[in-house]
């Protein structure tokens, strides 16, 4: 969903840029700058770090034991192409986006705070779903003791923060910018 919303905003930004080109309306220019700012923030804080994390974690765990993240039973309901759409194609598309469009990253402290807020919010949502249904949305969590779950959740948050920093470094390298 994050990737779909992000790329939708990218298309909207590009269309708005094309439609307002040559137009002297300061209001349209101001709105376009807001849209570009939202696009850049989403890339930095959500699309890149979460996209990299999902691909890395999903396929690492899948290779180890697919039943922990994507039980064979799901093959009956979710075709292979859709699984790859959710867990594979995210990475090449986000790297293409990073290479073709310069994104202005927020300050490091604001970016990391936003990434942490998202990660903690998502973890709380996963725990809430378990609390209400009694089922973990990720079967792996069923096998972890409460203490190990806490360590796992902290490690996940750290990895997502490292992914954010990787995105910032990669963006600066590609576009040869220094902070």
Automatic annotation (TrEMBL):
One of its GO terms (cellular component) is endomembrane system. The chain crosses the membrane at residues 41-64, 76-98, 110-138, 150-170. Pfam families: Far-17a_AIG1 (PF04750). Signal peptide: none annotated. It is found in: Endomembrane system. It is a multi-pass membrane protein. Keywords: Membrane, Transmembrane, Transmembrane helix. InterPro entries: ADTRP_AIG1 (IPR006838). It catalyses: 9-hexadecanoyloxy-octadecanoate + H2O = 9-hydroxy-octadecanoate + hexadecanoate + H(+); 12-octadecanoyloxy-octadecanoate + H2O = 12-hydroxyoctadecanoate + octadecanoate + H(+); 9-octadecanoyloxy-octadecanoate + H2O = 9-hydroxy-octadecanoate + octadecanoate + H(+); 13-(9Z-octadecenoyloxy)-octadecanoate + H2O = 13-hydroxy-octadecanoate + (9Z)-octadecenoate + H(+). It comes from the Eukaryota. Belongs to the AIG1 family. This is Androgen-induced 1. It comes from Struthio camelus australis.
């Amino acid at each position: 969903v994050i990737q779909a919303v992000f790329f939708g905003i990218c298309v909207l930004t590009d269309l708005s840029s094309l439609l307002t080109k040559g137009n002297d309306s300061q209001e349209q220019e101001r709105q376009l700058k807001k849209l570009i700012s939202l696009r850049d923030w989403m890339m930095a804080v959500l699309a890149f770090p979460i996209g990299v994390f999902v691909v890395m974690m999903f396929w690492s765990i899948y290779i180890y034991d697919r039943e922990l993240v994507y039980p064979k039973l799901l093959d009956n309901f979710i075709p292979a192409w859709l699984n790859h759409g959710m867990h594979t194609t995210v990475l090449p598309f986000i790297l293409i986006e990073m290479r073709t469009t310069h994104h202005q990253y927020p300050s490091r402290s604001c970016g990391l705070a936003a990434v942490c807020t998202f990660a903690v919010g998502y973890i709380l949502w996963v725990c809430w779903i378990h609390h209400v249904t009694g089922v973990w949305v990720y079967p792996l969590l069923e096998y972890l003791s409460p203490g190990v779950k806490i360590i796992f959740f902290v490690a996940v948050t750290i990895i997502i923060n490292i992914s954010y920093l990787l995105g910032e470094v990669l963006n600066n390298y590609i576009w040869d910018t220094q902070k």
